[in-house]
Amino acid sequence: MLNTALIRRRIRDTDLTVRAFKIGKKSHTDVALVYMDSRVDKKLLKRLTSRLNAIDVPSLTMNQQSLVEVLCKKRWLNSFPKVKYSERPDTAASAVLKGNIVILVDNAPSALLLPTSIFDILEEADDFYYSPVTGTYLKLARYFITVVSTLITPVWLLVLQNPEYCPSVFGFVLLDEPQNIPVFWQLIIMEVGIDGLRLASLNTPNSLTTPLSIIGAVALSEFAVESGWVCMESILYMALVTVATYTQPNYELGYGLKFCRIFLLVLTYIFNIWGFIAGFILNFLLLSFNKTLSGKSYLYPLIPFNARDFAAKVLRLNKFNFKK
Question: Is pTM beyond 0.70 here?
């Protein structure tokens, strides 16, 4: 009731509709669909309503995540997020005014926004609290960093395996000395090791989080280089990837891209340039066939291409009306 009231305070119109459901035989969890009746996609609303009515589970133990998994039983192998989560009432109200559907689950602090594409997940509300020029720059920078963080280590590994294809101007990326451990295994070890440090920081007392993070980042990396486990270049590229991951507004999307990066590394290491090409194509297909809860393309408005919607997603346009 509190979350629906927060949206109602921002949309004081009789067209705003809240449809209530009770999910779970034992928990009887309250679930609400919030939408503008005159702007919502009627087919999507009907399909989503029927699927909610057909849910037969004892309870939604993990709130909105349990609801998503119940609605996406056959899509759990794809690690990319199926919906956009938001804890901001202004973001939820904006989505409703655009004709989207917002799902609210009792005892959950965030709302589910449908339909969702990867461009929606990469979008932040703060982009619209700046001028159009600044907001556009932030959007384009985030897209560029996302692509770079996914491809930088596989491309570097590909260059190391094929130094003859490396232009002389980029010759500094090549390694002069033989490595005790192949670069591929160095990158894999650090991919897992960084997650280990991240998990350790979650269970570290707040008073010790900062000093232990510094010790883990500086001391461990220095000792690893001196002992011959990794080289400085591997640490540099993995540090860039780690920092770039925090530019993602969605934590789950960061891990989806991480798995794509590791998949590219494995194929590049085994099959060289043909493995890199195959991995790039397979990752693109993985994104293309990742159907969201709404059933629409994950890459919309790029696939299928819609020039008007694509410009609205990529650029921060100076328009504040919500007319279709």
Answer: yes
For 21-72, write each residue's pLDDT tens digit. 999 999 899 999 999 999 999 999 999 999 999 998 999 888 888 898 888 7
Distance CA 313, CA 317 (A): 9
Which amino acid appears at position 232 of this protein? M
Q: How far apart are CA 237 and CA 207, in angstroms?
A: 29
Structure tokens that stand for 160 in this block? 């190391």
Q: List, for residues 132-150, the tens digit of each pLDDT value.
A: 899 999 999 999 999 999 9
Instruction: Please report the DSSP string for 237-289 in residue order.
Output: HHHHHHHHHTT-S-HHHHHHHHHHHHHHHHHHHHHHHHHHHHHHHHHHHHHHT
Distance CA 261, CA 265 (A): 6
User: In sequence order, what are the residues at sequence separation of 6 or more whose Cβ sits closer than 8 angstroms to the Cβ of residue 247?
Assistant: 142, 145, 146, 149
Tokens 């397979």 map to which residue?
282
CB contact at 8 A, 115 and 95: no
**Long-range contacts of residues 214-223, Cβ cutoff 8 Å, at least 24 apart:** 220/193
**CA–CA gap between residue 77 and residue 190 (Å, rounded):** 24
Amino acid residing at 320: F
Q: In Å, how far from its chain's centre is CA 146?
A: 10
Higher-pLDDT residue of 152 and 290 is 152
Concatenate the DSSP letters of all residues of 24-47 into one string: -TTT-EEEEEEEETTTS-HHHHHH
